[in-house]
Amino acid sequence: MEIKNAVAGLSALAHEGRLTVFRMLVQAGPTGIAAGEIARQMEVPPNTLSANLTILSHAGLIDSRREGRSVIYTAKYENMSDLLEYLMKDCCGGSPEICASLADVVLRSRCDMPASA
Length: 117
Hints:
By secondary structure, this protein is mainly alpha-helical. The protein is built from six helices and three strands. Strands 1-3-2 form a three-stranded antiparallel beta sheet. The two termini are 31 Å apart.
């Protein structure tokens, strides 16, 4: 990942509305959520939602597909992982001990791990 991609991703997430949408899509999983449902849950006007979705899409954090009359949005997990990995590798500057505690947090917070782990 290049720094310009990292900046685009972080910039896109540095807004309460966009971060909320992104979190919602991450939690929805690969099935995604229709744009209309996102707007209803967030209680935002369609034009505001559209602008936020466009910014997240241009940053490479979400994807969309058409299903009938609906547009379904999904998080791009690989790009999210790339952004997190970039931050950890770049910010640690080749000194893994700097980010060791952060790496432990990441491993403990994996969704597929039992809560007791």
